User: What shape does this take?
Amino acid sequence: MDNSVETNVQLTESSRKNRLVDGEYKKRYMSVRAKFTISLCFATLWLFLSVFLARNWYSDLASLTNAVFAAIVIAGVALVPGFMNAFLVSSLILDRQPRLANIDLVHEPVTVLIAAYNEEAGIYHSLEYIGRQSYQGAVKVIVVDNNSTDNTSEEVLRASRELNMDIKLLSEPQRGKFNALNRGLQDIETKFFIALDADTLIHKDGLAYLMARMKASPANVIAVAGSMLVKNSRENLITKIQEWDYFLSIASVKRMQGLYQGTLVAQGAFSLFKTDAIRELGGWPEAIGEDIVVTWELLAQDEKVYFEPCAVAFTTVPSTFRMFARQRARWARGMLEGIRAVKPWQQPSLYHKVCTGFDLFIPLVDTCYTLCWIPGLVLAIFFGNYAIVGPMALLVLPLTLVVFGILYYHQTKYVFKTLDLKVRRNFLGFVFFMFIYQAIMSPVALYGYLQEAFGARRVWK
Assistant: This one.
């Protein structure tokens, strides 16, 4: 995918003003409750069908091991993933976003908050893209240097001079991203602010789309998550694979969660918040997944968190396996922190109970995939033993392809076309993403769970 943000993207006036207004999304209205009910019923029927078809598989595996082991393995590698994918695909088919406010008519002042630690190499570039935004309102920037040992602060001051931007540079000597964010929160004077990672580049209309989505939303919507795409996707195979993860997998889950008004992660890399809502929570907690915990705490107050797919920003993803593993292990730990902070059954909304409840089963899936599926795949390929990996287990794959097909269509037609971006060919990355990626992700996630279980030291980067 050509996610090059060096191109000066030009939108026609009609595409900018009429997105989601009497256009492709003008469909007969269906309530969120109806969509949720249909999706849940479809997923339940798929589960019953899967259980029926898995009878022989269960019998064979139980005769080789024992009944409990067979039940856990089949649930972890087939039944639970199948149920989740069925719920996801039906939700995506039914999803129709509410109308978006005209992005040229939103002028509310907004602050961009950046926590920075050793970001000398890229923070000037990120600030430059903030300065290029098409947003019509006043944009203030607060950068909090979190005890950097390089020239991060000097680069921020250079950007303030050369780009003629309203940038306030603060210092937070106590290490930890949450400390830096909380220091910056004290100085925000606008009703809304955007949390942004120091190495993230915002598409020139990204800020406008975030604000327009917020202004078009009900009063109890207090955060809007932006859409993250990969900036350095051409660097090597690892980044090529992650390009598809962001473009399809992460985006599909966020769209589903946004449909049910509970995007589970308003990511700190690029999301819009109501300032008072975060202050009332007491800011960000001391957590490795501080953005996950904050989002779940907002949902626990019966507030809503939306997702805007056209609010696009480009992030630098890890380009080595070591960096990738550390990042995804942090994400896995952050999910556990969110579950510990607010139990899924404590969420006031049924939609949020179900969406956060899915996360209770993800460790089971990752554990079964790591300890059972991967060894079972070796047995099937090299020894012809299909006790664990057989035809039944592969039923999840077609549903996954349907999900990604729907997302690919939506992303290309309604997001990339609107933003005048192009999807470039990345076939090798897609093949590895489809068939190899989970074999990498699940062991890494399991490592993160173990780190959290044994209280390993929290590290920002």
Notes: The first helix runs from residue 13 to 18. The beta strands are 110-116, 139-145, 167-171, 192-197, 201-202, 221-230, 270-274, 304-315. The chain is about 55% helix and 10% strand.
